[in-house]
Amino acid sequence: MNKESLAKVASGIVASNRGILAADESTPTMGKRLALIDQENTEENRRDFRQALFDTDGVEDYISGVILFEETLTQKAKDGTRLSNILESKGIYPGIKVDKGAHPMDSSPSEKLTKGLDGLYERCLEYYKQGARFAKWRAVITIGEGIPSDECIQANASALAKYAKACQDAELVPIVEPEVLMDGDHTIETCYEVSEKTLKTVFKELENEGVYLPGILLKPNMVISGSECKVQGDMMKVAEMTVKCLTESVPAEVPGIVFLSGGQSEVEATEHLNAMNKMGDHPWALSFSYGRALQQSALKTWNGQKDNLESTYAVFHHRAEMNSLACSGEYSSSLEI
To answer: Which of 25, 45, 65, 244 fits 30 for a cystine, CB–CB 3.0-4.6 Å?
Structure first.
């Protein structure tokens, strides 16, 4: 484990008000995205849309890393250039999704445990050779009747810690992603309780595994009401409760927290991040690792048509810039186009 190198990449990803594009949708998930614009789920379509994002001129001013699906890490553009090389040429770190998905737990089928630890270290060594410099593993925590169970939180935290150690041993910066889902009718207070418990359990396990905290990034949910809750927390309540939860749970050695958008709209995700950064300095950089909240408008604009590329570049550039501004608390809804 090269601690200096890991810390340099981790802190570099969240430096200069930049963040991460999560473009690591699995092939079936990408199919759902493409279906929204009546496009077939072909390798060519997946590549062409992702390449449109990577080719956007000047996006490196706002995006420091891109999480890729395995297919994309070695995929080539029509001219033979590897997509990951396009990113590298702009000074953007390529990352890789390494988990094998969340599966129902044997003891509690309504809860999920993420798999993929078998052979992970060897895979990480190969991903590093292919150009990846960081990785991502997503754990899913569901709030519902009698859940999450302690067993589910503990099992996912343990897997996240083992993943993080394997990554660091292979010189990849691990993004640790324990996501408490928005699905459900739970209150923002319940989300807070579950998020705090989950994060504290995760960091205890990271310590047990000997994970080097300055060489990781945390990718948590924001503390937010369930999507079906009748009382939704306003922007400031989300910001204040999220920061309080992180302050109680996340050691200061962690260089950055890169939020997932978790089903929020593009503007909501930007507004919440901005509100947190307007609150003042925090021990860690607060940034973004958004998928849909960076891509949705760009996907609709692209619509599978080459003629729409220039418009797609403009839309994606704008969304990336808005989130970069939110990293310094300088975003305003008046800047939206």
So the answer is: 25
